[in-house]
Specification:
With 340 residues, the protein is mostly helical. The protein contains 16 helices and no strands. Keywords: Membrane, Transmembrane, Transmembrane helix.
Amino acid sequence: MLNEKLKINTMLSFTLIILMIGASIQFLLPIHLVNPYEYFYGKELKTFQVFHIFFGGALLPLLSLTVGYIATKVKSIMKPLILSGLVLLMISLILNGQDVLFLAAISGLFVLLFRNRPMLMTLVTLVVLVVAHVLLNVLLKALNAMQSNNIVYSAIQKFNDYVSVFRTSDIIEYANLNLGTIVDLPLLMLLIFISIPCALIGSLLARVKLEEILPKYMQVVLILVFLFGGLVIKLIEVLSVGSMSSTIIGEYIGGPMVAIGMFLSIWVLACYMPIGVQNRFNHFGQYAIVYYLVFSTIMGIIFYGIGFNLYGEVQVLNAVGIAMLVTLSTLLFSQFLTKS
């Protein structure tokens, strides 16, 4: 039981590190309002493309996979899920309206409905949701986009209004704008067709005991299939230079595939990592939601008008570097607490 707890906290730690780095650009500018191929150019555009290939559309699925896995393994998980969901919602409202990770907590609660039921019921539900997603949200929307204006144009006026608010120190205005952003995002679609299916996949992986079914080399093959398959789809999205149809396919198919590859990589690391190394990540994973709140607060202070006011001013690579530095600082702080 202790080893399982260490494994889960190690998985949470690596998931958290990816989420922190992936959230970096959300603190830089309202990326949901711009076509990157209009806004960025030259080396800056190439940097964004590399970042987007790995992280675009992958953060919510990755956390949902991890939450689904943990919700199946840990018996008393309902209260932590509700608390984590409320904290993540607070982060979205006050600090980062583009962050919809609170949906993963809702998906975790949904997984609890299937935890003690036959696996076949979970599998059938998953297949229905995935097929509906591919038909309704990917193929249909992509075909409609190709038959109409297939370019995503930037909402420049909204972008300027957004940036001007976050360059002030008015936290109430942040909350109002973030609430508008959250409402404008397709939350129901993201919950039903992205987050819940990924959580169900995580739950199934927890129940089938993959380490006992597949030999190590097949585990590696499975990781490569999802990771590189997703990256190829994301690369096609990047090479299409911002068309709406390729963006839909990249975000809704490529992103979740990359997330599954990342999750399986994290799972393998946690399974075969020495217990002594797992202990170094135990505190970071055990208090993951606290560290994510600290990370988001520090990033808000750095980028918004309440602090150093860098919103919309720095380059993508610098924003990622700042996020990595803050992530490393929180990780080192957790190591200090582990020693003490």
